[in-house]
Amino acid sequence: MAVTMHDVARAAGVSIKTVSNVINDYPHIRQETRSRVLEAISALGYQPNLSARGLRSGRTGAISLIIPDLKNAYFAELADAVMRAAAQHDLVVMIQQSGGDRDRELEVLHGPRMRMVDGILFSVLALGQEDAGLLDIPTPLVLLGERIFNGPADHVTMQNVAGARAATEYMISLGRKRILAFGAHENEVIGSAGLRLTGYKEALTAAGMPYREELVVHVGNWHRGDGADAMRAALASGLDFDAVVAFNDLIALGAVRVLQERGIRVPEDVAVIGFDDIDETRYSLPSLSTVDPGREEIAETAVRVLLERIADPGRSVPPREFEAAFRIVERESTAVV
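The structure corresponding to this sequence follows.
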């Protein structure tokens, strides 16, 4: 038989009303009482009825996270970070995948399921700056990613330009001279690839090194296989390089595999750094140096800002931009030899 609010009240020695007040985060409750009720809820495994709670409060206690693809480790780990951040506020997260397709992104954003949540975190991949007006919806919304800036909603992102510049400067500091920009997208300016290429260029300029178009390797999709294919093509072309600044970790891992298959030593012959700091980078051989873009900070900030918007549906504060701090993580793939 399911545990009821009556059971919690009896175990905690309080009234049902007090249990309800604790569940709904009513502020004027003694900490001792609140702790006793929460301990009883935990011990009994009580699950509040979110539907009934929503009817009373006008809220469901659920938010949606729209991401391109859970197969991409970065988005899977971002989803995990968002769920942990949301749990700190007793929020349930409903995850939707868009596949990085423009029509699907709009379909999910405007679909009926979005009426079941209090707010939306939206990691945009296909929509562009020209689509900003399509995001002006009544449901509180926080944008993630690098496709739309200065739009109608709060935006939480990473420092793509500065992070890629720091990764390239790090390679330069190791004495590397011919550094691949690995993962560019044709004619992209706004978006992760375009911004990271800008950072790469800035680092070369600051160091007085020439920008060489032949050292820019385009990789259409950012999965391991795409990185492996692009590296095979680069090697087949006879391209001469001694370092790789990969625009995400997955294509870096694919590239490292191909380099090793060809007898090219990492990092002795070619140093490699990725971007994203996914968990797999700690356990690859060699372990992969990378840019930690501040994923935990992104998740925590996004949830906090979304809750602020949920509490202020009138949008009295104009849309804001937030950037997480980044750091270079040095591992074996760039070790000094």
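The chain has a mean pLDDT of 90.
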